[in-house]
Amino acid sequence: MKRKLSNVTLLGIDCVNVERLQAAMDVSMKDIEFGAVKLLTSLPTTDTHLVPIPHIGSVEEYSRFIIEDLYKYVDTEFVLVIQYDGFILNPKSWSDEFLKYDYIGSPWLVRDWSVKNFAFPKNSVGSKIVGNGGFSIRSRKILDVGAQLAREGKIPKVHPEDVAICVWHRDLFEKEGVKFAPAELAEKFSYEGEEWTYACQFGFHGLSWTNLDDWITGHPEYDFIVDEYRKARKDRFIGRMTRAREKILNNTINVFKDKAIEAHTFGSVGRGDSDELSDIDIWFTYKDSDIKDVLAKRMELYSEIGEIVHLCEPPQNAPIDGVHSFVLYKTEVGLLQVDLYLCPQSTSFLTKDSKKIFSEIDLPRMELSLNPNRVLFNKDYRIDFVIFIAFIAIKKLARNKSDALGDLLKEYGFLSEKYGIKVNNLEANAQSFAIYFQILSNIKNVSNSKQFNALAKIEKFARTVEYIKGL
């Protein structure tokens, strides 16, 4: 039997794509009978819940509409505002406590970026503030108060509307008797953001940044939403990884440009065909008189770029009298590989796909080749190098390379064959994530604590990539 919420209107607004909002409304209505259901749009539709409105052409216009005009469309005591990416997940989690307040939405965990980007109070960092408007219950009272304050010119900035109501002008609303739900109750009502874990909350907001994996797995019947979720999660991952790469590249240039007389990228970045998983190959040239000092303090400089997860310096790949450092950095979304080449002017060169960043000198073009100096390897280095190859294999698996694990399997085999490091035999020789994780597990068994921790982070990132690839 459906739960009856006769004093609540289910309402969504969408002037971009009615179909996606209809899907969210269908899910939300499945087990609840609302006092009214309204789909506000300027687009043509035969939906029986249609309420025509003037076209809303931007998120800024949406915020203005919510604060200034929404009251005109709500006749019940409360309204549940939903969006195509914010709707009811678990009707059984409904509580009448939600209606004891004039506003309830998922709480925000205030971060430094909340202060920087949205002018949250500095003293609120680390606290939880209610909250998100994309999936929220609002009383008719707060709608009327918001419209009145807007008419009086007391809310000069309305976007984002939920921040305007719950943060910037909350005191004005509270002076009018508006009651905001406490964060503890709001956590049971809805959740939003990557720091939250779905725990059967009533609803959520944010298809691309909120993890709905368990709910999606349990509701394949909502094929439109499942498809939207998968696309949103992929796009979010790609976008965040791309921005992380740009940030690390800029950090690297800023850290190493001091005294450098030339810098260039090469490989996929130089060619312009890199993707979100591509590594960054970057080469810095220094005067011969400066290279010794740069190499001596390189570890300190690497740490200035970002948080280092793993570092390996393959001497066979180093330019003559210089160094090649494979550095694996942690970003807020995953791991990123940077290959740094530090080289004196006397042995420096460009490859055919080099792209200049800056230059005070002309360099010859040559091909990368192995350093002719004799190289001796110890056990720790050998495992470090295999870890380096293991990270590269993630990208090959994600790109469906036919021999994605070829180099890794070869280096893994060398551990026992050439270096006496006993590792378990593999159950199969296949190009799959399953075999990949088996290799990582076996390498952990012969690793020191630092290497073990790096492998654990690589495994976590690899599972993320496997999941995104499978969407």
List the helices and strands and how they pair.
Layout: E1 3-13, H1 18-29, E2 32-41, E3 50-52, H2 59-68, E4 78-82, E5 103-105, E6 107-109, H3 112-118, E7 128-130, E8 136-139, H4 140-151, H5 161-168, H6 170-175, H7 183-189, E9 190-191, E10 203-204, H8 213-218, H9 223-256, E11 262-266, H10 267-271, E12 280-286, H11 288-296, H12 298-305, E13 307-312, E14 323-330, E15 335-344, E16 355-359, H13 379-398, H14 406-417, H15 433-444, H16 449-470
Parallel strand pairs: 1-2, 1-4, 2-3, 9-10, 12-15
Antiparallel strand pairs: 4-8, 5-8, 6-7, 11-12, 11-16, 13-14, 14-15
Structure description:
The chain has about 475 residues and is α/β, with parallel strands linked by helices. The chain has three domains: about 5-220, Alpha-Beta Complex (Spore Coat Polysaccharide Biosynthesis Protein SpsA, Chain A); about 235-375, Beta Polymerase, domain 2, CATH 3.30.460; about 375-470, no CATH class. The protein has 16 helices and 16 strands. It has helices spanning about 20-30, 60-70, 110-120, 140-150, 160-170, 170-175, 185-190, 215-220, 225-255, 265-270, 290-295, 300-305, 380-400, 405-415, 435-445, 450-470, and strands at about 5-15, 30-40, 50, 80, 105, 105-110, 130, 135-140, 190, 205, 260-265, 280-285, 305-310, 325-330, 335-345, 355-360. α9 packs antiparallel against α12 (about 300-305). It starts with a strand and ends with a helix.
For the biggest sheet, the summary is: 6 strands, mixed
Low-confidence stretches: none
Which structural class do the helices and strands define? Answer: alpha/beta
Question: What is the gyration radius calculated from CA atoms?
Answer: 28 Å
* CATH fold category name of the largest domain: Spore Coat Polysaccharide Biosynthesis Protein SpsA, Chain A
What is the class of the largest domain in the CATH system? Answer: Alpha Beta
Mean pLDDT: 93
Give the distance, in angstroms, between the N- and C-terminal Cα atoms.
Answer: 34 Å
Tally the structural domains: 3
CATH architecture of the largest domain: Alpha-Beta Complex
Please give the order of strands in the largest beta sheet: 3-2-1-4-8-5
Q: How many strand segments?
A: 16
Proportion of residues in helical segments: 40-55%
Supply the number of helical segments.
Answer: 16
Strand content: 15-25%
Shape: elongated
